[in-house]
Amino acid sequence: MDDDDPLEDFLRRDVTVDGVTKTVYVAGTGPAVVVLPEMPGISPDVLRLARWVRDAGFTVHVPSLFGTDGAFPTAEGGREVVRRACVSAEFRAFGGGGTSPVTHWLRGLARRAHAECGGPGVGALGLCFTGNFALTMALEPAVLAPVVNHPSLPLDDPAGIELDPADARAVRDRLRRDGLTVLAYRFEGDRWCTGQRFAAYRALLGESFDGRVLPDGAANPAPPPFFADVVGGPHSVVTAHFVDEAGHPTVRARDEILAFLAARLLPRDSQGAPGSQGSTRHSASSAPDQALSDGVP
To answer: Which of 43, 59, 154, 210 is the most buried (most CB within 10 A)?
Structure first.
């Protein structure tokens, strides 16, 4: 996947939460799932994942948080996106920074998506720089299925979790109170999402944290340039380092994620095999083409 993705099968929306407007790409029908971008943006691999989620029976929402939407992740372009994100007021990239402010906007997006799409709740799927954001979004009661993929923040603390203490306690208590589980993935030798970080999640969340580790040898050996030259090792389980071969560990991880979302968000009689298209037909045109504003019925 070495070309830009034109996103022609997604609707482009302007979504406003508390006076802040961001672009969100929407496709599909069914309960909402927010698929967050990974560094350096909404890449073709992120959109491939979003389409798998859409085709499993969900209305997928992909918010634009950084980078060029649909762009193939080059090394030099990606470095510049990382530099800008690390100094942005919306993100807390380094240890001691606490919870990233952008997660408040994302919780509003989840609330709006649930109001529009219905169903029991919303899924949130974080990736890399946004990995932990899916967990923080569980502070929104509508979020029932958080998936934390190879969370890389804080960048300078391999044992850190990108949450301030009050939010960490609130997330822990919410998961326990409502019987929720966080599904998480990393590669064994990932230097951006270490075993220390997964241990910190487990210490905070206990049995609510389901962390799964893939062997480094399962990673795609020829990822896009940003991941080969900047990330520099196995990292992105279901995007850049995904290997699309039947029975492959990354395919099993993808299918486990889809099954996790389906079990929590879809009626039992509408669930199909993980990765297969659901009982309804999904297309960009099936979602209403309108701007959303938090607080508007």
So the answer is: 43
* Residue tagged 């590669």 (tokens): 187
Query: 3-class DSSP state for residue 151?
Result: coil
Determine the pLDDT at residue 273: 45
Backbone angles phi, psi at 166, to 5 degrees: -65, -45
Quick check: 31 and 99 in contact, CB under 8 A? no
Cα–Cα dist 230/290, whole Å: 38
How far is 126 from 146, CA to CA, in rounded Å? 8
Name residue 20's amino acid. Answer: V
At 88-109, the pLDDT tens digits run 999 999 988 899 999 999 999 9
Which pLDDT score is estimated for 36? 98
**pLDDT at residue number 275:** 42
**Residue in 183, 163, 278, 293 with CA at minimum distance from that of residue 237:** 183
Is the bond preceding 225 in cis, omega lying within 30 degrees of 0? no
Q: What does pLDDT average to over the chain?
A: 91
Compute the chain's Rg from CA coordinates: 17
Q: What's the sign of the alpha-carbon dihedral 269, 275, 281, 283?
A: positive
- Classified as helix, coil or strand, 290 is coil
